[in-house]
């Protein structure tokens, strides 16, 4: 029972940490090819992951043939 509680506590902590990214959601910049990017954390001792806005173009197979949705590049239809 203790192991199950500890496991769920760690999973919950991980999910809270993932949801609290300090990187802003941004529009695509010329250097962006994927739907995610990294920015320095507030303590300046590590990195946080940020995402492009949904609907921004990305490189799925070739240049600008994809579309960002929830931080993932999908083939544009």
TrEMBL record:
Residues 1-21 form the signal peptide. Keywords: Secreted, Signal. Its main location: secreted. It is found in: Secreted. GO terms for cellular component: extracellular region. InterPro entries: Ixonnexin-like. This is Putative tick salivary peptide group 1. It comes from Ixodes ricinus (Common tick).
